[in-house]
Amino acid sequence: MLETKEVTKMFGSADHAVTAVQGVTMNVADGEFVTIVGRSGSGKSTLMSLLGGLEPPSSGTIYVNGEDISSLSSRQLDRYRAHAVGFVFQNYNLVPNLTATENVMLPMEFAGRPKGSRRLRAEELLAQVELTGAKQTRKPGKLSGGEQQRVAIARALANRPKLILADEPAGNLDSQTAGTIVELLRTLAHTEDTTVLVVTHDASMAKTSDRTFRLSDGRLAEE
Amino acid sequence: MSVLGRGVRNAFRNVTRTVAIVVILGVTIGLSFVMLISHKAIQEKIDATLASVGTAVTVVPVGSAGTTTPRYLTTAELGRVRRLPHMVNLDEALSGGTKVDGRPVTVVGTNDPTDPVNVGASTLTVVAGKPIDTGGDSDEAMVSATLARRDDLGVGSTFRAYGRTFTVEGIFDSDTAAGNNTVIVPLGTEQEATHRDHEVAHATATADSLVHLSAVTDEITLALGPGADVTSDIGQADQALGPLDSVKSLSLYTLYGAAGAAAVISFLVMVMIVRERKREVGILKAIGGANRPIMLQFMAEALTFSGLGGAVGLVAGGFTAGSITSGLVGRNFHATASAADILGGLAAIVLVAGFGSAAASYLITTIQPAEALRSE
Fold first, then answer.
1. What are the pLDDT digits (tens) for B93-121?
2. B294 within 8 A of B281, measured Cβ to Cβ
3. Which residue of A126, B144, B243, B324 is 20 to 30 Å from B20, comparing CA positions?
């Protein structure tokens, strides 16, 4: 369901161009839990941005569910991000003045989901990631790092996307919490039939995934 | 929570900053509102003063007053005045004295028998009959009601004066004793009776509007030269309205300045807020937010700031407009907010919010989510 062909991303002008991702070709099936490992600066986050439609590739094509997202217009990319993909970031990236529930409701609002069903779905998702009771009404500043990342995962799942992109989801967490979060993502991948792509520099996390790719100087290789 | 609700809530994310923004916008919008009210009140005062001035220009020969040998204008000289632009009427008059039934009366010859100035009054009303025909040198006359009663005259009656027999065509009433001791006859009749052919004791010219009054006064002065005193109320009015005009201009410039300052403040505040929340905008875009709902959210925030600032400004401005205007004018001055002023104030609030929103909207469209998320 996810297929890239010779995807390259360069930054800067021709004279001073920096190639962040170079000729990446990969295929990931539905429901797979895949990790992409690599050192800092190897192009992992840029690849995630490309797959998530946050920026266009300099060359190459990206197919998600058979659709070439590298040729979509800005408005079509908005819809793609709202419906087809969910993001989990290292720094959680929750909206600070909204409660946990409201943060989860946000993508549903952008996707045009009926107002009445948003809260119910958000509360169900938060319960699914084991965030219950008063914690659902707390703002991110009143939650621990692990709890914030659970909210971020619930937010990523809000519109039932077929692809979840997690960029260092456990990077700011202690090892025990990190393990819980990774386990949560793997469970979701299998139970929800959602493809999960996790970018990490932690080799131990890679051992738990279905497949692992290594990104080195922008070039991808399967391990 | 709706997009607009989030925008309103975001306006209170930093209460200290919100209070500061509201106070600053309140002061500037309030000042604009006060200046709007002042400007309008002063304009109304100027209009009322000018309306009371009238458009008449009085022309008398130089040195004719208080002398035993009065001087006269000639119909030839006044003919030049009659041809000047923006003139609608030229009332010429010659007065003399005679006896009616052995008692002295003033006789005024005029080509405008209903002009009260000719009988030294400010009002003249025909209470019976009709005004005389002033086209020639007929023996028609208008007598005051006082004389009519005294001499038992009515419309159609006749009386003797200047050795001629006059027929009463109309009876009038004026607001002065001198006016009510006057007989009005055609100008030609008076000139012939007093042997002053083509001579006029005074004339009243009427300009077509207040706008042209000054110009008409100057033109008449130029046409008649130093032999005539030409006066109108415009000079006196100009003297009285001069300070008001200055304050009116000051209030207008301050109004523009304060409204502009409010718009600039709103613009800069929203630029600062969007730049500060660039990463948050990137997150909203990353999770599927299109430009439109994100812009609406920031517009609601800008409108909240402007609305609160505007409310503070309108209330404070409404209470202080009278005293500030009095202070500017230098005397007690009545200035209150009308419904139109309040509507103007509300329009200014929307305008201020619009400026802020425009800044936010533009910046939001330029934010690339990947770039915003990289900028940690």
1. 998 888 887 788 899 999 999 988 888 88
2. yes
3. B324
Note whether B285 contacts A98, CB cutoff 8 Å. Answer: no
pLDDT tens readout for residues A150-183: 999 999 989 989 899 998 887 777 777 778 888 8
Is A87 at the interface with chain B, CB within 8 A? yes
Q: Is the pTM of this model over 0.90?
A: no
Length of chain A: 223
CA atoms within 13 A on the CB side of B180: 12
SS3 of residue B228 by DSSP? strand
Q: What is the ipTM of this complex?
A: 0.91
Q: Tell me the nearest-neighbour CA distance from A88 into chain B, angstroms.
A: 10
With an 8 Å Cβ cutoff, is A106 touching chain B? yes
What local confidence, expressed as pLDDT, does residue B117 receive? 86
Contact (Cβ atoms closer than 8 angstroms) between residue B325 and residue B45: no
Using beta carbons and an 8 Å cutoff, which residues of B are at the interface with A? 1, 3, 6, 9-10, 13, 279-280, 283-291, 293, 368-371, 373-374, 376
The one-letter amino acid code at A8 reads T
Q: Where are the domains of chain B?
A: 3-49+240-374, 56-232
Residue B350: exposed, middle, or buried by beta-carbon count in 10 A (0-12, 13-18, 19+)?
Answer: middle
